[in-house]
Amino acid sequence: MKLLVVEDEVKTGDYLQQGLTESGFVVDLARTGLDGHHLALTEPYDLIILDVMLPDVDGWRIVQALRAAQATTPVLFLTARDSVEDRVKGLDLGADDYLIKPFAFSELLARVRTLLRRGMTPVFNDQLQVADLLLDLPRRRAQRHGVRINLTNKEFALLELLVRRQGEVLPRSLIASQVWDMNFDSDTNVIDVAIRRLRAKIDDDFVPKLIHTVRGMGYMLDVNGED
Amino acid sequence: MKRRPISLALRLTVSIGAVIVVVLLVFGWIVERSIDQHFVQQDVDELAAVVQAVAQILVEPQTNNEQLKRRLASAVSGHHNAQFHLTKTSGEVIYATPGSDLSGFLQTSRVSDALDIHSVSNWQDQGHHYRGAVLMLPGGVAVSGQPLLLVVATDIDFHLHYLEDFRIYLKLITLVACLIAIFATWFAVYQGHAPLRRISGEIRRIKSDHLSIRLAPTTVPVELTELAVSFNDMLDRIEEGFQRLSNFSADIAHELRSPITNLRTQTEVALSQTRDVAQYREILYSNLEEYERMAKMVGDMLFLAQAEKQQLQGEYGQVNLAEEVQVLFEYFEAWAEERAVTLDCTGPAVWVYGNRLMLRRALSNLLANAMRYTAEGERVSVTLELHGSDRVLIQVANPSAEIAPEHLPKLFDRFYRADPSRQHKGVGAGLGLAIVKSIVMAHGGRVSANYIDQQIVFRIELPRAFDSVG
Q1: Three-class SS of residue A134?
Q2: B124 in helix, strand or coil?
Q3: Residue among B385, B411, B397, B384 nearest B343 (CA)
Q4: Rounded CA separation A6/A35 (Å)
Q5: Could you report the per-residue pLDDT of B189-210, keeping only the tens digit for each?
Q6: N- to C-terminal Cα distance for chain B?
Q7: Is B331–A190 a contact, with Cβ atoms under 8 angstroms apart?
Q8: Do B8-164 and B316-463 come out as alike in CATH topology?
Q9: Most buried residue among B5, B206, B253, B409 by CB atoms closer than 10 A?
Q10: For testing the chain A interface, which of B285, B294, B333, B424 should be mutated: the one with the most A CBs within 10 Å?
Q11: CA dist list (Å): B244 to B247, B296, B396
Q12: Between B384 and A95, the higher pLDDT residue
């Protein structure tokens, strides 16, 4: 997967490149709007991460040029300007998502992966499996090592999200938004408690442990995780 | 464009000036009338003296016609403007003042029995003005008892000239008096507005760094007291807003100081000697937590700033609060169960018009706040009800230690924490309830906190949605 990052802030650009590269992407970094504009229009990318505020050619003009050239490459905006009009403008011009600075890198990563997945044909499986954990989606049942586990509706939704995005660090805000439709930070440890209870049901009595806490970032479901 | 209203000075000058002009004109008219009357009376008196003299002569026995004529001629002596004709009813002239021609007057005038103001009339002859009367006199012995017709008149040119001059003089005086009066009015109005100019001068001294200046309502005229008082009230509000704003900036600086201190100290200590990887990781994790707290605080403050500038836009529509509460209960379920806190909601499905996302955020903050301060085994109860005909009332109650009444309204202040020791124990930045308040205000509602029966009750009033589908 090849990404383009257009970011004039030196440190931010460096860390975005490093972080995304370490997460398995091939990353081109453009430090000016002009370079970004040129690269976006000439090179094929799977996704473009654009800073809105650039000294020469701003992010809006790049996405405009891109859409004018009939390119459907997903675009994610990074912006320090948190006003409704700005967001609406960005989305109107053809951006696919936006993140407001300061953002958590794990959040950016999760959104990037969501956008990249959007283009793929979804796989309609009736079952999801990780190690010996089995999810029966139509009947909303879970079993581990052949043992049926009773989950509440929300617990199942949470587990399904973790399994579907296996190996990804999911920030708490993303979990709250996807499972409970809470699109704001609630100032509580609700997600931690929910994860703890889910863990008690699917991990406590089994090996290997599947749900892992990534400190300061969120949670991840994986067969081999650091914890 | 709406026309600017006429100036106060002009308005007052015109209205007062008009009244003065009318009064002066009426006064002048009365003076003129009374002088005119006075002259009429004077003429009547003169004519009466002549009539009296003629009548007197007629009752005295006269030797012959010549003597009678001489006596009659002497009747107008001393009244050199007066003249008369004495004729028999047959038309035969007994006496006529020499050089006089009163025949025209005799034809146009009616005959009276006595002489008074109403029986006299005026006429004009050969450029002269006369006032006179036609009288029927009972005949005396001098004319052997026959009734006689007496036409008596006096020249009034002199009076008319005087009146003419007087009228011009009066008009001039009235004009000058009007001008003086109008100018005096204008001056008085201008002087009357002096307190306004003084107040304006005082107001001009008020700058953002001198917001404590107030107008003294007792030193201005009574009529301006209310203005001064309401102006002072406005200044109070502005000063309060200003104060809150600068407190807010100070609070931000203060609130950011501690995470920055933590980060800085930690990093400096970490760098002061070589450590193993695990220690470095620990430090970075700890830093990450601080960053997260700062990022959240900045986000919340931006939200509040936007709410205050009325910039919270987004989709508005019908929101079923009962449903929202249920969704939030589901979200908080695990946390509540773990802390053995019961959540319950009573009341009908109430609908409000608003932004679902924002209202959910407000309710979530309220619930989180209530749960956070509820001891294990206790209950957080939400009550929904219709309040009056057009309001919806949401109450969130939880058991709490007593909170002094003066602290209750402050709970909605930014960075206010009822218990200072709770600071930085994962409780958030102390902006949760401030956000609740700003969201509710943006929806045209009201918030309040009350302490009732060992419970702290947060009350939210929102405008009810009427054309609700449910």
Answers
A1: strand
A2: strand
A3: B397
A4: 8
A5: 888 888 888 888 888 888 877 7
A6: 46
A7: yes
A8: no
A9: B206
A10: B333
A11: 5, 21, 27
A12: B384
**Which fold, B217-308?**
Helix Hairpins (1.10.287)
Of B302, B334, B361, the CB nearest to A194: B334
pLDDT per residue as tens digits for the range B230-276: 988 998 888 887 887 787 778 788 888 888 888 998 899 899 999 99
CB distance A9 to A32 below 8 Å: no
Helices B194-204 + B222-271 axis angle, to 10: 0
Total count of residues recorded for chain A: 227
Tell me the pTM: 0.64
> What is the DSSP code (8-state) at residue B409?
G
Q: Name the residue of chain B whose CA is nearest to A172's CA.
A: B292
Class of domain B8-164: alpha beta
CB-CB under 8 Å, A83 with B335: no
Q: How far is B246 from chain A (nearest CA, A)?
A: 22
Residue boundaries of the structural domains of chain B: 8-164, 217-308, 316-463
Does residue A123 belong to the interface with chain B, where contact is any CB pair within 8 Å?
A: no
pLDDT at B469: 46
Calculate how close chain B gets to A137, using CA atoms only, in Å: 21
Residue B295 with chain A: CB contacts under 8 Å: 102-104
Kindly state which CATH superfamily the domain B316-463 is placed in.
Histidine kinase-like ATPase, C-terminal domain (3.30.565.10)
Dig out the tokens for A95 from the structure: 């951006």
Question: What's at A148, amino acid-wise?
Answer: R
Angle at B100 between CA B70 and CA B144, to 5 degrees: 45
Q: Is any Cβ of chain B less than 8 angstroms from the Cβ of A206?
A: no
Give the tokens for residue A44: 């094929």
Q: What is the interface pTM, i.e. ipTM, of the complex? A: 0.78
Interchain pair B288, A215: CB under 8 A: yes
Judged by DSSP in three states, B291 sits in helix
Instruction: Give CB contacts under 8 A, 24+ apart, made by A115-119.
Output: A115/A47, A115/A74, A115/A76, A116/A1, A116/A46, A116/A47, A116/A74, A118/A74, A119/A46, A119/A74
Instruction: Please give, rounded to a whole number of angstroms, the shortest distance from the CA of B289 to a CA of chain A.
Output: 6
Chain B residues closer than 8 Å to A189 by CB: 335, 426
Find the CB nearest B428 among A84, A187, A197.
A187
Contact between residue B427 and residue B374 where contact means Cβ atoms under 8 Å apart = no
